[in-house]
């Protein structure tokens, strides 16, 4: 089998696995069906800040409401309107494009009065204040959602009853804390590129990144460009490649300069992009461990590392029976691995489930060192999360009837995972965490 055919076959198998509907906690309850984001107003998200703005300081905090616009595009428009470099604007998280979202951004040394009368397409400035530091990714407690489900496959009153029943179970037992399909990209190969990156396999990483044409996803021009790359015709591939896909074009230029030397070319790939792919690899391993622990994500085992929801600390479970009441109260939860040098391994019965999955990855010290260089030091992640402020309603508008879901989630938890438990369908959604320089391009 040719190398490129092998890559395509491997990608197909891994992609199929990643696209399969995750094991659902409420599988015994029939779903409502339905779709989200028929229009942006059907998916409302509001950030819950990690801390309140002080009201004084060198950084101006701006609460924006955007419609049908990604966070990166919104920041670009704000930067142009304020005439400041894009890098001077900070944000706590990346929010959906096909939605109405409210989030805080910060900019240094800009008079708040300058912002009150600014008119920016698809952006409304709702509040302006000051604080002492720049907003950075992660400065976020969680998100509040109001989501309308349409095209239900059951009567509206039955859908509401089903949603209430499912949400009652999820609030008590927890929602499986899967990383959503957005994490793995439209081509479902971010984790494969991440594995090649930590293996320092330049050929495989670049082939996956630029090659492997896919008629289901690629336009005619993109198919041609990918095939030209596979044929070693790098200049012709560059000539055809869309100009907005910056990083892949940069790799092609480096290949031309380096006369096809992929090992040398791989060194110029953006470090943050490599880290993004490695994070996707960590996510794929975590998802497999979570699947192996389903449906008992609310049960502690001897040897587990338990997560304290109050402060994010972890501790070893020596006596599972003694700790289980705390788990029942959702004070603590069992965890899965985020692979890296700092990942604490489980012991006893818990390890018997997790260790075979980790050992099958065959990672050694060299791979862990590579992961550390790219910011993936390792840790533990709870196997479940608890929705708060849950409410269900029904209504009718100009588009017809809908089921409305309201809930709050901690930062890093996927609303689409919760929705899938109600609909019993995979929820298609765009990446909310696009790779650097690759946002909204494919």
Q: Could you describe the 3D structure shown?
A:
With 442 residues, the protein is an alpha+beta fold. Helices cover 37% and strands 22% of the residues. It is built from 14 helices and 15 strands. The strands form three sheets. Strands 1, 2, 3, 4, 5, 6, 7, 14 and 15 form a nine-stranded mixed sheet that branches. The chain is globular, with a radius of gyration of 23 Å. It starts with a helix and ends in a 19-residue tail after the last helix.
Outline:
The chain has 442 residues and is of the alpha+beta class. The chain is built from 14 helices and 15 strands.
Give the end-to-end Cα distance, rounded to a whole number of Å. Answer: 29 Å
Chain-averaged pLDDT: 90
Rg: 23 Å
Q: Give the helix/strand class.
A: alpha+beta
Helix content: 25-40%
Question: Would you count the extended β strands for me?
Answer: 15
The general outline is: globular
Please trace the helix and strand order, writing H or E for each element. HEEEHEEEEHEHHHHHHHEEHEHHEEEEH
Number of separate helices = 14
Main beta-sheet annotation: 9 strands, mixed
Poorly predicted spans? 14-19, 431-442
What fraction of the residues are assigned to beta strands by DSSP?
15-25%
